[in-house]
Design a protein that fits this description.
Layout lengths: L19 E5 L5 E4 L1 H7 L3 H4 L14 H12 L4 E8 L5 E12 L5 E9 L3 H21 L4 H16 L3 H7 L1
Antiparallel strand pairs: 1-2, 1-5, 3-4, 4-5
The structure holds flavin mononucleotide (FMN).
Length: 172
């Protein structure tokens, strides 16, 4: 389900001890979400269960970030990411997410988990700048080449800083 909500400047801030949790199937359809997820998203639980996780996608997020997330999960690895999400009323909230494959006893992924906590303001400001550049790059490249172009830009930013993605994300 894609939403056609008009984004606005109303920000919701996570509290220090909040965890926003969801589980999905292998296609990213929500199979579980906790009370705080429901609160921040503004949707009712029955609207979230079975919906694609992009129900809370914010248009300020570059597509390349999600491509990177799915590539990392596809390699059966965990992924850390700062994500700007959109609530049902068009407001937004930043999270620091750890997304992991949910493996069975044979190491085969059955779905995914995401646990999100309050992001530091410095990190949000740094990532907002990087995401803006990535988004501009995607617009320049056009839909077909958007992800490759913005991941290329992210890679060159990291190269300049001489750090890996994980080093960068976990150090800010
Ligand atoms: C466990 C899990 C959690 C996710 N959490 C979010 C999220 O909080 N916000 C979001 O926009 N996308 C999230 N995604 C990614 C979405 O599935 C989707 O790839 C993304 O919203 C981009 O959607 P689009 O391809 O329709 O643009 C999550 C995916 C998984 C597997």
């Amino acid at each position: 389900m894609k939403n056609k909500i008009e984004p606005n400047a109303q920000e919701r801030l996570m509290r220090d001890d909040d965890f926003i949790v969801s589980k999905t199937d292998l296609k990213g359809r929500i199979s579980y979400c906790n009370r705080i997820f429901i609160e921040f998203s503004g949707y009712a639980e029955h609207e979230l269960l079975g919906a694609q996780h992009n129900i809370i996608r914010h248009p300020d997020m570059p597509r390349g970030v999600f491509q990177f997330l799915w590539d990392t999960l596809g390699a059966r690895k965990e992924c850390f990411a700062y994500v700007k999400n959109m609530s049902r009323d068009g407001g937004f909230y930043w999270v620091f997410a750890n997304v992991t494959p949910d493996m069975d006893a044979h190491g085969v992924p059955q779905g995914y988990f995401s646990v999100r906590r309050k992001p530091g303001r410095g990190a949000v400001s740094a990532l907002s700048d990087v995401y803006k550049l990535m988004l501009e790059e995607e617009r320049r490249a056009g839909p077909r080449d958007a992800c490759a172009a913005s991941i290329g830009l992210l890679t060159s930013v990291l190269k300049q800083k001489e750090v890996s993605y994980d080093q960068f994300i976990l150090s800010i």
